[in-house]
Amino acid sequence: MKRGAMAHLVKQLATKSEIWVENESLFSLLSADIVSNIPYGVSTSGWTGVSTTAACALRTVTTCRLARGFVFESAPGQCKPVLWLHQGSGGTVVPAGSVDTHLVNMFLRNQLDEFCQAGFEAVKFGNEGHFTCLLELTSLSTYQKASTECKALGGYLASVRTAEKLEVARAFAKGSSVWVGLDDLVAEGVYIWQENDARLTATELDAVFGQYPPDNGAGGQHCGRYSAATNTLDDYFCTEVQKALCETPPLSGLC
Question: Which CATH architecture has domain 121-248?
Answer without folding.
Answer: Roll (3.10)
